[in-house]
Amino acid sequence: MSKSHYLSARDRMLTRIAQTRDAAKAGLPHGPARNDGKWTLTSDGDWTGGAFVGELWLAHVADPQRFPISDAHAALRRMLPRDQLRTAFKGFGFYHGAALGSILFADETGRNAALTAARSLEQMFDPKLGLIPLGQDAEEASAVSMAESSIDSLQATGLLYWAADQLGDAHMDAVQCSYAESIGNPCAVR
């Protein structure tokens, strides 16, 4: 890709992130409406809201004046109610929406939110099953038993891996390793 193509694509992405930020003051984007393409918002972002918060962290890297870090903080605050929900899917949201802020900017707000969510995931781990069940608050909870998981929830391992490293927590590391292997992926080795 040429530099001009890259810059053009980056500018289009930043424009869409800004449009979404401006449209999502009372929630976080979950998906576009089919009839008009406007965002369907949820108050706490559902399982997808963390991706948008992650976009705000990355947009701050690209253009800090247009995307102040306070944009990411404001969006992160909206997803904080999810940190204690019993759902494996919060791993995705809090890795991108919170841990990424810590990774890129040593942001304590992001770090604390990500660690809180990771500890909650760790507590959900079922050692008999060797996995983190989808959880009673998961979006698909009504369609599965409390002892089921899915490949979609594997993304929780990224948050657990990062948090175990941050905390030097051998138990959390063992949880992420067991969980990854139970779903058929090799354990991330340190």
Task: Provide a short characterization of the protein structure.
With 190 residues, the chain is mainly α. The protein has a single domain, classed as Glycosyltransferase. Helices cover 55% and strands 5% of the residues.
Can you offer a commentary on this structure?
- With 190 residues, this protein is mostly helical.
- The chain has seven helices and two strands, in the order αββαααααα.
- The protein is globular and about 50 Å long.
- The mean pLDDT is 88.
CATH topology: Glycosyltransferase
- The residue fraction in helices comes out at 40-55%
Radius of gyration of CA atoms, rounded to a whole number: 17 Å
Q: Structurally, how many domains make up the residues?
A: 1
Secondary-structure-derived class: mainly alpha
Sheet-strand content, in percent, reads: under 5%
- Return the CATH architecture: Alpha/alpha barrel
CATH class: Mainly Alpha
Q: pLDDT average, as an integer?
A: 88
- What string gives the helices and strands in order? HEEHHHHHH
**Shape estimate:** globular
The main sheet comes to:
2 strands, antiparallel
Ranges where pLDDT stays below 50 over 5 or more residues in a row are: none
Contiguous helical run count: 7
How far apart lie the N and C ends? Answer: 34 Å
How many strands?
Answer: 2
